[in-house]
């Protein structure tokens, strides 16, 4: 068996929250943010960690990075106990929080990177090489002297990813790395991550709301809901269980009655536009070919299923 | 322990150096900020001087004696403010979630929070304190002996320790009351205002509280009172006047525990 | 008009949500009040009747100061920081195209804040001071009403000053220096450290005629009953005059600034 970089064994996290009940009285509630999650990730794997909001994704990541202390169970990252050996672990992992930057808000990227170099004690040649590579692939050249607060979300995200990789971490955690980014930035980030994993063998754990991220990057996907792991396998399997469907949105030249082609069914029509559903595991190509042969097409696009939908269907199917 | 201390000091130095470099990139603006900090804190002394245009003594202390109290407290607070003043942003960091970013870096969190946005302009506060202190030393009527000459710098450094402990406890408090950064102002800036005046003018209960509950009296009232040859208000044994370094050490230890408890609480609740 | 009343109510409610911050502020103001009260007792013990106040009037002055710190924004800040950040990010262009008057909008919002902070942060320190010391608070409800009017005028002057400070961001990349300078002036010349009547000679005379004296010195004197009849009208007139002059100045500066924005295209 391959060496496991991330190991979780019945990991739990329980929060105590006090809620107002009446004017002065407060009641104590226990919230089980993470309930007994176990999994391992072998070195060099790129894993998607998905689930609806509040499912426990961020809580898990915070325990894996040592930010939060677990309530129970065991966790090891690169052989270390994240909570106890947090500063030692910090040398070996990289973290990118999609919503907030880990860079110094008022400083230009260049200064932030220099500070990172000295904080993480990265030797000059290695730092140069890593920075040049990130600047090149993430297109940061023009941004290096701009204070972080003046960067757009997509630029800042690229800056953050570079910052997380300067010290060659063994494990990279990405929390919603493509949230709020435009199409071009998304593509750039995905391509970069793909190359990083392929060339350096960096283990990547990625949370996202965008199934396209998973589809293009991860062979393995884990689904968490209500603090429990409900699926661990490949994306195709997830679609199969959830019987999830992709949707082909087709604009015809004129209004038509609902069309019929093999392998797809029309679920909605609106003027000359129709929505055709087909299994997420199948290719869109035969459906498109069949349509093009028989009907006058103007435009078409494919919509991926939502994570929320997929999970909802999993429950409906189970 | 030793290694963490080294890591902390090293990290603190790195971050501070970067902020200083960033600050000095705009020299005119920096000079104006130092001047602003100098003048705005010096106005407190101007107010005291205005008081002394109307009277020769306040609570039995002359203007030079009050200036000595002012100078020692202001210098100690100025140093603590320069080194640890950024701690008042801790609550805001917890609220906006940027605290998490500090926890995934290989430098102790305390060093990162205190060094963040290191404000070199606070040299203004220190320098007005030092100037008033020097002026007071030239004016005050004291027979200088060797132990008094040693006690003076020891007092200023102990004051730094005591104020530093207050800043740290205030920060620890912000871990669970995120919006309460102003509470520590009552003890830092408020404490400084208290200590600028002689203890003789305050109610005994207040002096008692400022000795035994929050050990402000050890910043200057007790040791400087000894240098000036004054009886202390509470009739404490004489050695207490020399206890400031020990008190500062105890205060810092307690503050260290408070900080750790606060951080542990944050790491178990995430908020 | 209804719109601005709503904006003011919004400002009031917004600050009402910061409960812990308010409690922390009340605590700090009360501690400072105690410290200053003892220094004033010592000074007035040496010089009874200094600055025209007896000791209990001097103590009343201290606690009125602590009561008004937040409401009259003696330390500066509040909306002007927000205005500065909107100017530096360019969001101000959006505000200028709204069919509302920018200055009146911020004035309404700031008066809402002041009202909340007068109650939330002012009342408790004043009450604590009245419990612990012998204060010269008036018994006549009419005097309290005139005091509130004077406080309101002081808050408008405070707003008008901070509006100018806020607008400085149109010309300055970093407004920290201006903010610091403005806080310094308002701390010293409002009378918060020492009543302006105690300031020596001509310096004191001038200090009492500057706009900052409208923030604390005048309302405190109104509360203490130092202005009567025509004198009272003159005192309120002094505040109103500064309010009008500074608001007008703010408008003029805003007009110049707006032209700049239009020329530069934001």
TrEMBL record, chain A:
One of its GO terms (cellular component) is plasma membrane. One of its GO terms (molecular function) is ATP binding. Coiled coil: none annotated. Pfam families: ABC_tran (PF00005). Residues 6-251 form the ABC transporter domain. It is a peripheral membrane protein. It is found in: Cell membrane. Gene3D superfamilies: P-loop containing nucleotide triphosphate hydrolases. It comes from the Bacteria. InterPro entries: AAA+_ATPase (IPR003593), ABC_transporter-like_ATP-bd (IPR003439), ABC_transporter_ATP-binding (IPR050763), P-loop_NTPase (IPR027417). GO terms for biological process: response to antibiotic. Keywords: Antibiotic resistance, ATP-binding, Nucleotide-binding, Transport. PANTHER family: ABC TRANSPORTER ATP-BINDING PROTEIN, ABC-TRANSPORT PROTEIN, ATP-BINDING COMPONENT. This is ATP-binding cassette domain-containing protein.
TrEMBL record, chain C:
Keywords: Membrane, Transmembrane, Transmembrane helix. InterPro entries: ABC-2_transporter-like (IPR010390). The chain crosses the membrane at residues 20-41, 61-79, 118-138, 144-173, 185-203, 230-250. It holds the Pfam family ABC2_membrane_6. The keyword Transmembrane applies. PANTHER family: INTEGRAL MEMBRANE PROTEIN, SLR1174 PROTEIN-RELATED. This is ABC transporter permease. It comes from Streptomyces coryli.
């Amino acid at each position: 068996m391959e060496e496991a970089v991330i190991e979780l064994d019945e990991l739990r996290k329980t929060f105590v929250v006090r809620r107002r009940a009446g004017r002065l009285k407060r009641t104590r509630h226990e919230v089980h943010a993470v309930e007994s999650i176990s999994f391992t990730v072998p070195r060099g794997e790129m894993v998607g960690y998905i689930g609806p909001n509040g499912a426990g994704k961020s809580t898990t990541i915070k325990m894996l990075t040592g930010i939060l202390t677990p309530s129970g169970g065991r966790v090891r990252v690169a052989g270390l106990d994240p909570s106890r050996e947090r500063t030692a672990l910090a040398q070996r992992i990289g973290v990118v929080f999609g919503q907030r930057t880990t860079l110094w808000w008022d400083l230009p990227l260049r200064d932030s990177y220099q500070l990172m170099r000295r904080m993480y004690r990265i030797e000059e040649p290695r730092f140069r090489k890593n920075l040049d590579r990130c600047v090149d692939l993430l297109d940061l050249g023009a941004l290096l002297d701009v204070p972080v607060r003046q960067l757009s979300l997509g630029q800042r995200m690229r800056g953050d990813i570079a910052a997380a990789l300067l010290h060659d971490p063994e494990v990279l955690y990405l929390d919603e790395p493509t949230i709020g980014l435009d199409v071009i930035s998304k593509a750039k980030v995905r391509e970069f991550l793909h190359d990083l994993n392929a060339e350096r063998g960096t283990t990547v754990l990625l949370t996202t709301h965008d199934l396209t991220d998973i589809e293009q990057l991860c062979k393995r996907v884990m689904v968490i809901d209500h603090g429990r792991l409900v699926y661990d396998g490949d994306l195709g399997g997830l679609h199969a269980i959830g019987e999830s469907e992709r949707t082909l949105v087709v604009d015809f030249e004129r209004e038509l009655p609902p069309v019929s082609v093999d392998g797809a069914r029309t679920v909605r029509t609106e003027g000359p536009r129709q929505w055709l559903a087909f299994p997420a595991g199948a290719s869109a190509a035969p459906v498109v070919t069949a349509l093009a042969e028989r009907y006058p097409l103007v435009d078409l696009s494919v919509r991926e299923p939502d994570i929320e939908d997929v999970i909802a269907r999993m429950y409906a199917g189970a | 322990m030793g290694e963490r201390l080294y890591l902390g000091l090293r990290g603190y130095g790195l971050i501070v150096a970067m902020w200083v470099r960033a600050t000095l990139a705009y020299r005119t603006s920096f000079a104006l900020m130092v001047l602003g900090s100098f003048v705005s804190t010096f106005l407190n002394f101007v107010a005291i001087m205005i008081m002394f245009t109307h009277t020769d003594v306040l609570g039995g202390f002359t203007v030079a004696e009050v200036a000595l109290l002012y100078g020692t407290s202001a210098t100690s607070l100025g140093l603590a403010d320069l080194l640890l003043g950024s701690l008042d942003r801790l609550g805001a960091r917890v609220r906006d979630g940027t605290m998490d970013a500090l926890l995934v870096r290989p430098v102790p969190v305390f060093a990162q929070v205190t060094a963040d946005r290191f404000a070199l302009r606070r040299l203004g506060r220190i320098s007005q304190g030092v100037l008033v202190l020097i002026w007071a030393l030239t004016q005050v009527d004291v027979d200088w002996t060797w132990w008094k000459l040693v006690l003076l710098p020891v007092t200023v450094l102990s004051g730094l320790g005591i104020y530093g402990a207050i800043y740290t406890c205030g920060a620890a408090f912000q871990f669970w009351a995120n919006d309460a950064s102003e509470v520590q102002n009552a003890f830092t800036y408020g404490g400084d205002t208290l200590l600028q005046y002689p203890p003789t003018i305050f109610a005994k209960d207040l002096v008692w509280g400022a000795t035994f509950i929050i050990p402000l009296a050890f910043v200057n009232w007790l040791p400087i009172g000894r240098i000036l040859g004054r009886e202390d208000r509470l009739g404490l044994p004489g050695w207490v006047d020399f206890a400031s370094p020990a008190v500062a050490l105890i205060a810092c230890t307690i503050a260290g525990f408070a900080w750790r408890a606060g951080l542990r609480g944050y790491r178990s609740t995430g908020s | 008009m209804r719109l601005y009343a709503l904006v003011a109510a919004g400002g009031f409610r917004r600050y009402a949500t910061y409960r812990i911050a308010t409690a922390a502020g009340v605590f700090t103001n009360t501690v400072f009040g105690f410290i200053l009260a003892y220094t004033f007792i010592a000074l007035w013990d040496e010089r009874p009747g200094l600055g025209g106040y007896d000791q209990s009037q001097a103590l009343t002055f201290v606690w009125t100061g602590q009561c008004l710190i937040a409401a009259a924004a003696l330390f500066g800040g509040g909306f002007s920081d927000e205005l500065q950040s909107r100017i530096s990010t360019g969001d101000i262009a959006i505000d200028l195209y709204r069919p509302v008057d920018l200055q009146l909008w911020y004035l309404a919002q700031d008066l809402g804040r002041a009202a909340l902070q007068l109650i939330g942060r002012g009342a408790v320190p004043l009450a604590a001071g009245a419990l612990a010391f012998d204060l010269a608070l008036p018994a006549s409800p009419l005097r309290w009403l005139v005091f509130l009017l004077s406080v309101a005028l002081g808050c408008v002057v405070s707003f008008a000053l901070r509006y100018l400070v806020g607008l400085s961001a149109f010309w300055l990349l970093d407004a920290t220096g201006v903010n610091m300078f403005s806080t310094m002036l308002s701390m010293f010349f409002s009378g918060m450290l020492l009543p302006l009547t105690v300031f020596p000679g001509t310096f004191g005379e001038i200090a009492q005629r500057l706009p900052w004296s409208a923030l604390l010195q005048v309302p405190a004197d109104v509360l203490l009953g130092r202005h009567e009849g025509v004198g009272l009208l003159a005192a309120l007139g002094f505040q109103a005059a500064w309010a009008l002059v500074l608001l007008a100045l703010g408008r003029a500066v805003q007009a110049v600034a707006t032209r700049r924005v239009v020329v530069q295209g934001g």
